[in-house]
Protein: Cyclohexanone monooxygenase
Organism: Mycolicibacterium chitae
Amino acid sequence: MVGAGFGGLYALHRFREQGLDVRVFEAAPEVGGTWYFNRYPGARCDVESLDYCYSFSDELQQEWTWSEKYATQSEILEYINWVADKLTLRDGITFNTRVTAAVLDEDTLRWSVTTDSGEEVTARFVVMATGPLSSALTPDIPGLESFGGEVYHTAHWPHEGVDFTGKRVAVIGTGSSGIQSTPIIAEQAEQLYVFQRTPNYSVPAGNRVLTDDEVAQAKATYDERRRMSWRSGGGSPHVAHPKLTMEVTPEERRQAFEKRWELGGVLFSKTFSDQMINLEANEEARKFYEEKIRAVIDDPEVADLLIPDDHPIGTKRICTDTNYFQTFNRPNVKLISVRKTPIQTIDATGIVTSDARYDIDALVLATGFDAMTGTLAKIDIVGRGGRRLVDDWADGPRTYLGLGVDGFPNLFLVSGPGAPAVLANMVLHAEAHVNWIADAIAHLDQHGYAALEATPDAVDNWIAECNRRADATLFPKANSWYMGANVPGKPRVFMLFIGGFAAYLDICAEVAGAGYKGFSLLEPIAAER
Ligand code: FAD
Ligand code: NAP
């Protein structure tokens, strides 16, 4: 097993419960994954805390109490540590150890796993819970390495925190991480320059402290909350408006958007169920959005720069914020559009664009991740016939259900490409994947099989199905990281299953119920019988 974030920790627990002998390798010194690394100011979940936590144990659900609607990074990390202690997970994890290679021995159907500490272990199964957003991207800006001041990436934030008081700071990047951190950095810094490439849609999070009554009520009705989440499109108990966008009157439409806006958060892009498939419907949401955002920005020219005009709303991961747009009304904050005035170079003391120079003391890179495939690509994964996963995936990731890969028997992915992954509440998503993998292993053992291997046909058909579903939506219209568009040279393919969380779980259950349709069940090789 690789990784000790939400996915890996649950896998360790579940596999142990099943009596398996499990070893987890984790590159970091602690558990937490995403929430261990992303400690930038303002980091929070954007799925409600009450939903963004393990559902497999009612005891855990009842004992833990979230303090805010959207928990801070530190509270989520505290929760993950609490779970790790409660379930006695740490003794199964080798920390500070990066897996560098996993090589299949076709004769024994065993994997040889190598780490950067020189250890080599042999395993029947390899489960990659390495995270879809765990390889931070540093932009290729000329001169970046010559900058003499402080440089921070949001995904590798110093544990002791950073105090920007009295400093001139630049933030590059206006995705979720940039949008969450900018308002807080602006409060500290003497001067803040925000370098924006593509303007992003961001909806007020509507974060607040949860009252005791709310928590008690949620805990009393957790079963129903979870039932709705498992049957939903995105893994949280959200129900879209019962009618389509253009079926209602303009007044009803406005009311529905208004209600969703007041509730806050990413679900604004799911107010109506057709918003992400019908451009006319999407445009209604976009117009409402634009009106709301223009209303809070003082300078109309700054508003023009901040309002996206190149992709439909929601086709890039919609962001949530607390006073992001209002931050540009502050006298110490300046927005620089690098589309209009590109960054030419960074030197020892500042950033030079095509029309100005900005002297700074500190640089914050909120420039995102090589998502979905970047972390797996760093591991030398070698399957049948010496085939390397990176080569097989040169034109885009190839998986069946996001769980298995042809030519790589008994290699499983948690929240890999080809699954809904980041389109869903990823804690429930990880639980679903781990449960499926654990059941598959139990099935192999009960029936005397050695291994499970996706067939090339099943993989081809699944990729075609993912593409077909994506093409029926507005998502491919955006140059998003879902499409690999943020990494120079990365193939442009929509890397996720977009048919909805519940629909996806039904397919996975159907595949398992039909004796793992699309997978070959391999007999033990002669030497082992
Ligand atoms: P991770 O948490 O990324 O854990 C993977 C682990 O694998 C890491 O600890 C890493 O060190 C380890 N690892 C990787 N490669 C190796 C290797 N070769 N050897 C050893 N160890 C390795 N999702 C939501 O659903 N809701 C949210 O609100 C939300 N907010 C987010 C906020 C931020 C800032 C970010 C970056 C992501 C957010 N996500 C959110 C997505 C988030 O990544 C998932 O929700 C979830 O935490 C992923 O868990 P994981 O265990 O799959 O992966
Ligand atoms: P991101 O969404 O990929 O944003 C990266 C930003 O950096 C983009 O604005 C991008 O511009 C910009 N950028 C990249 N390279 C650049 C360059 N060379 N020059 C100028 N700008 C450059 O990354 P992220 O903000 O870290 O978020 C990634 C994902 O993590 C999110 O979509 C979400 O799933 C998750 N996340 C969630 C939360 C939350 O609210 N819970 C918070 C943070 C992250 P372009 O758009 O033009 O590429």
Observations:
- The longest helix spans residues 426-446.
- The chain is about 30% helix and 15% strand.
